Hints:
Chain A has helices at residues 2-41, 47-59, 62-65, 69-86. Chain A is mainly α. Chain A has one domain. Chain A: This is Cation/multidrug efflux pump.
Amino acid sequence: MFAMARLFIIGFLVLTVVYISLSLYSRAVRRGKLEAEWEETQPPLPKDTFVDNGLQEYDGSLRRKLILGVYIVPFTLMCVIIYLTNFY
Amino acid sequence: MTYVKWTVIVVFWACVFAFLHYTLPQHDIARVTDTYEKRVDPGENRWFWAQADVGSDGTLQNRDVFFIQTRRANDSVMVFRNEDTGWSWPPYFKFDTSNLQAEAADLRSTADAPQWVAIKHYGWRNELLSVFPNAISVRPVEGPDVRIIPWVNILILLTLAAVFWAIWVRWRRFRAARIDPALDAVGDKIDDGGSWFKKRFGKS
């Protein structure tokens, strides 16, 4: 039981670091793209408002929720490995 | 300085290679000749033993371990240990040690009437340290010349390479965009003079 708890706690901490890094990186990339889009299309909005609106849209988007895969993919993989190793 | 640099690089890649070679699964085509269990007292080689079966008391010094004796297709012998990896490293999540021992015992055969099996395992055999590879699964195969394509290894190595390449490229880009200009600015400032830095360390 101790080994299992250790795996889950350490795994959760490591994946949380990955999750936070990836979230920040993805947001920064999105910001860069919005700024580039503003430069190119020159919409009537001020740049800050345009970028903020875009980021707000991004916050609610599916793309951002996909980053949760950082937790889901390894957990699914673990379940698959347990099944294949022991019960297949 | 070049020697130091290359030594560090070579040692680093040797460690990476050794780690992957120890951890990733490999297949041996072999004939199971016998199975047994024996008491082990992990000492200097304790890194190369797993732990007690999941659910049992893991604090005791010694315990019984299952072994599988085989003769491989190339006629050399190989002895595998058969231990739970449980929830620890490497992540095979193997809990069915006793079942595997039963399967291996069932597949025993003689040289006269050979039953060839593919044994998936990780780890190394080292006679000098009494280190044994850990068997993960065993399944019957047609004959000694079966070719097994290591799809899992291919997938894992490709994924690893892709992840590290992605991080490396982004790091290079980040360094070119942020760190190099900052260092240049510091250098310029020192050259220009008038800074705190120059007053203390620059040539007057």
